User: Fold this.
Amino acid sequence: MCYTKVINQINKLVNMKSKKVLMIISVILIVVASAILLVSCGKPSYDAFTLNGWEFMALNRIVNTDNVDITNLKVSDFINLSGLSDNTYLYEETKEKQINVEGWYPTFIDNFDVTYNENSGLNPEIWATSRHDIRWESNKKSHPEYSNYWCSEMVSVKDGKAIVKAGYLDSHNCEVCNSYGYTKGRFTGGFETRKEVVSSTADGKRQYSSNILWGQAFGYYETSIKFPDKDGMWAAFWLQGNEMREIGFDGVDGTEIDVYESAFRKDNDKMSRMGHALLWNGYGESGKTAGHIGKLEQNLYDGKFHKFALLWTPDCYIFFIDDIATWATNAGGVCKVPEFLRFTNEIDAGDGWGPHGQRIGQFSHDGFANMEVEYIKVYQNVNYEKCIAPSIDGKPYSKANNFESHFKSDYDKAN
Assistant:
């Protein structure tokens, strides 16, 4: 009996200890699982591969693909720009092309290392400031001062940078803006390789002629940008053509190409994002779009310059951020006509919403915020030239024919 009691007591102790051990193990497992869950929830899932099959263009160039990370393809995996100068340069038909081994040559490079005495410091042969105009009317009737205006006086060239500032002014002194009644509100601007000139005024509305100063179809485009550090803002580098609003040929006769649109500063500590987009057939009922908002590992709003690039081939568009391919598509049918370049700075009109339907916060009327452009580099490839659509007069595209193609179709009803 004593022996049996002893055995029973031992079994009870063992069972008690086993339960405690199991309980301790369970608690540890719960803690570990929770930690893993928290880490996985806190760590963003980055978009690493959105090339839609167009990665084959890089893979066909790489000799040994065994160790290639196709989620991390670089500009140099797609094209070779070696041997080409990156000094400020403008190609003209009378000049000899500086062609490298893969057929690339520079067509337009501006390092903003020269400040001109006119045109906000920009080269007047190639650039014009975006027209003096109201960009967005206030979304709040009780606050008409929330309206956003573009003015050339908000653009300047300083220390090798093209700068577009943005801020609130309650006594704006620009002569042109004042003549239009724009004296109080949110002012910013942009610059582009197109000059808009008032051609007529009807019913109190100004009509503009769109005169392209420089344009190109296909090629490689690269810029370095520092974003404005302020809520309620976004900046963009985009390409556009005079025929983008025509319908009938989809994007082939004109596509707005948004190389980047920086409307994601809000909540950037949780996830850095960037938008690429294509728009064709105008902006009305017939308008069509395709886009991609990428989740990124790096912080694009760190106060430093970041690179944005577009490889526009006869077959597709490939977008890059900091030299890494982020999106590729041929939506709309690849555009085959020349387009001009645009750098623009935007301010919300009081509602705190951005162009992609996301919250960007309210713009503060205290102080200014700048978009800074370090350079723009554009290259063409001799193998792409045969794919460019003919011009309207059969001659080389130029200011003389306003870079207009032979495509003819009706305009979108909204324009």
In short: The first strand starts at residue 89 and ends at 90. The first helix runs from residue 2 to 42. The radius of gyration is 28 Å. Residues 1-14, 25-45 have pLDDT under 50 and may be disordered.
